[in-house]
Each structure stands twice: as C-alpha cells, then as structure tokens.
Amino acid sequence: MKPFCTAPFVGLVIDPQLNIQMCCSDGTFHLNTNLRDINSLREFFYNSKKYVNLRKDFEKYSLLEYFPCNDCHRSVNGFATQVAYYNQNFKSITPLKLRHLEVTTSNVCNQTCVMCSSRFSSAHVKLHKTGNVMTMNDDDLKKIYEILPDIEILNIKGGEPFADQNNAKLLEEVYRLNPNISKIVIISNGTNISKRFKNILTKFKHVQLLFSVDGVGKVYEWQRGSSYDKTVNSINTFHKDTGITYGIISAVTVYNLPSIVTDVNQQLNDFKGLTSIDNTNVVVNPMYMSPELYDVNVLFKILGYIKLHNKIISSFVEIYNDALFNINSYSTEEFRKHHTKFVNHTNFYNKVRGFDILDHVSELKDIYNYTI
What we know:
Layout: H1 7-10, E1 11-14, E2 20-21, H2 41-47, H3 49-58, H4 82-89, E3 100-103, H5 122-128, H6 138-147, E4 153-156, H7 165-177, E5 183-188, H8 195-201, E6 207-212, H9 217-224, H10 228-242, E7 246-252, H11 260-270, E8 274-282, H12 296-313, H13 332-353, H14 364-368
Parallel strand pairs: 1-3, 3-4, 4-5, 5-6, 6-7, 7-8
Antiparallel strand pairs: 1-2
Helix pairs in contact: 2-3, 7-8, 11-12
C-alpha cells in the first residue's frame, strides 16, 4: 500500500518544546521523544524503533484512518494542510533519505497573537503566567548541525525566528556545511530583523520568506498585538536592505475574515517587494476563533464577496481557494459550546489591547450578542 503522506520518509520536525515529530500537525506527539532524549537525529531518523514502526503504519493505514494525522483530514475538502505540502515537495520515498528539517530553536516571541499560546510564544508565557520559555542550548544545536549537510529544505519557525540569535547561528552553520541548500523557508512576524540576519540571508540562493500579517490597521494590531505601521516599515526596510522578495501568510480567524478583501488591497499598497499573499490558513482550532462561528447566511455572504473580488484583486494573489467554501457553520448545539469561550476570549484581549475589536469588525456583534 502506498503511504498516504511522505513526511516520515523524508524528514523530522523539532517543535518549540524540543519534541521530535513527523510533522508540525501531529498534535498527539506519539513519537514521545524529546531532542534531549537522544544522541543523534540521524540515528533516530533511520534506525529508531519508534520511527521505523511509524513508517510501517503509514503503509498500512489511510489518512482518514490514522489518528495522529487527523488534523490533515480537511485536505480532502481543499484546505491547505501538511499532507499536501509533503506530497507536493517530496513525491518519492525511495531511497529512504533525510531531506527535510523543520526546526524551532525556541518559543521566544515578541507578539501575543490571539490564536497562539505559551507553547509558541514567550510573550504569552508572561501574559498568561503559564508555560515556560524554552530555548536550545549548545548541545541541542550540535545535534541539529549534524544533519545539516543532508537537508534539502530547511524550514525555520518560531516563536519568532528573528528574535532568537540561535537561528542566526543555525543559518551561519547551514552556509558553512551546506551552502547550496535547495531552499530555506522562514516564517516570521517581520517586526524586527537585525543586520546579522540580513547579512547571512543574502548569501543563500533560494530563501523563501513568509511574513505573518493578519489583516491591516486595528484588526492586525488586535489579532497580533504589534503596531501595523511599524511592521510595514520593518518589512519594507528589510526588502530595501537585502533585495529579498517575500510573501504574506495570514491566519484567517473569526476576527479578520470579514475584512480580507480590503486588507489585501491595503497590503498590496503598503508592502514593497511583496510577491504573494496567502489567506488559506483557516483557523479551526481553537474552535472558538474559527470563522465557522458565523451564521451560515452571514458566512455565505462574506465568502461570496471574497470569491467575487478574488478575480479582480491581482493575478499573483492566489489566496482564496475552495477551502473557504467548505467551512460548515456550527449547529446550534455546537455553537453553544464555543460561544462562552469566544466572548471571554474577546473580552480578555479587548482589555489587553486597550480597544474593542467589535468597533472595527461589525460582523462580530451578532456572534458576541447571541443569546443562548
């Protein structure tokens, strides 16, 4: 039986807590292994009993049957998922070869995004007084360096990658050990990029930078917790200093879905060096931030407006795939479960941000004022 996904046949993922996973969508952590539990990532990939057995499972089960991969089941409805990423980038699994590494050297971050948590952001650790600030030490980094010569695609995530100097060390080691690497992918909030990072990034031939910008103006500032204007200036300065082009990738939540069309038009005007915008990352977990909270008629109206304007925004803005139209509005009973959490979450961040998001996204008022 052909494996439904190539992920465990081509690479490894190290998450912000140093857990080793087959991919970032595996919320079950069923490999149950931390980077500090092993001596060699190469040995773990090729010979560990856990990973060998995992690959056998992938040849026995289908996507919809295999519980650790449940988050990717939405791929059948057109959603952007990790199974699509791996199968598109790594079509062959023979010979077995370590080719892909996704690494997060820490959860150090300067933003408190409303859809995030202390697992991925040290700013959330401080805000919510829960979790821990995690960062790799020199021994951890050495284990990463060991496999750098093997890697074809290196994906650096956070935390905020440019807020952790370990990532500068990592990139410098990549250039020393594997200067012709096929691709380096970095996902960043773009709020502060130092000269050290700019210098090392310009040495590589293929760098794909994706900046997380959810909305514009007050919607962006409420959802991510940073100044929109300062973020625009930081990213534009980066492009001016390096000549590196980039894409924008957004998390689509109940809060920023209604303004996507106007946001895209504004982003096209504000950002220099922008080559793509991707708003297909629809948040479905936590469910109380999902666009599914909208009444089905309201949702249909919003999505119809998006689809209509998709054709006239720009030829390179490939952002609204059919996944958005496969969102199913919650039943009344399901809505009840999430309404209280939505209200509490909204109230909390209204207080943190110092302004009311309902004043900027009128469509939220019907959800917020819903009487159970």
